[in-house]
Write a structure and sequence with these properties.
This protein has 213 residues and is mostly helical. Helices cover 79% and strands 0% of the residues. It contains eight helices and no strands. Helix 3 (51-72) packs antiparallel against helix 4 and helix 4 (78-97) packs parallel to helix 6.
């Protein structure tokens, strides 16, 4: 286990513990630290699929860090945080799109992802304020597109890095689905553990994908 991964596990555990215990100061420190560690993992990775891929992933991680900060603030910055993560996913999409200008799409992943997105949206629809209907719908489309490209790329390339990106994308979908259900449908038991656990796993796996092997 690398030192970066050990440091990430410590920061992630501190963030989750702080969230569960409502030690907000600990969350304010540990959550940005965890994403900074992911950024460092991606930045230090060698060799990489390409300089372009690394740059796009790093920019996506930076936008994710901004989203984390916005969502942590005492004021309700949910829409701004959502927008920051949407931009992050657009950069991840650009990274997973491929170097040849044409994405690889695995039809076998399209049906389960669309099915999952439809189910989650149906669950949260009645609890969504009218002003969030379009932002949440747009975000859902973008994150599912990101997951489709990442998993399709993993199926086509069959490398450890591509598989890491695919797993990270699916963990991101799971984390955001849990977050949406917890916020707009029904409270989940120890929700922070599942939401943050899958979130940190997602960002680590995507950062890890920068190392080509």
């Amino acid at each position: 286990m690398s030192r970066g991964l050990i440091a990430l596990i410590i920061a992630a555990a501190a963030c989750i513990a702080g969230q569960l215990a409502e030690f907000h100061w600990l969350v304010y420190v540990a959550k940005p630290a965890a994403i900074a560690i992911c950024f460092g993992i991606a930045f230090a990775a060698s060799p990489t699929p390409s300089a372009r891929y690394r740059t796009l992933i790093l920019i996506g991680l930076a936008w994710s860090a901004l989203g984390d900060v916005l969502l942590m603030l005492p004021q309700d910055r949910f829409v701004l945080g959502l927008a920051s993560f949407l931009v992050a996913h657009l950069f991840y999409i650009a990274a997973f799109w491929g170097e040849r200008g044409r994405p690889v799409i695995a039809p076998m992943m399209l049906v389960p992802l669309v099915g999952m997105g439809t189910l989650v949206f149906a669950m949260i629809r009645s609890g969504l304020p009218s002003g969030l209907l379009i932002p949440i719908g747009a975000y859902l489309i973008v994150i599912l597109a990101m997951a489709l490209l990442a998993t399709s790329r993993a199926a086509a390339r069959r490398t450890a890095g591509a598989r890491a990106a695919g797993m990270g994308a699916m963990c991101f979908v799971a984390s955001d689905a849990l977050l949406a259900i917890n916020r707009f449908d029904r409270p989940l038991p120890i929700a922070s553990l599942w939401i943050l656990g899958t979130y940190f796993a997602a960002q680590y796996a995507i950062a890890r994908s920068v190392r080509a092997d």
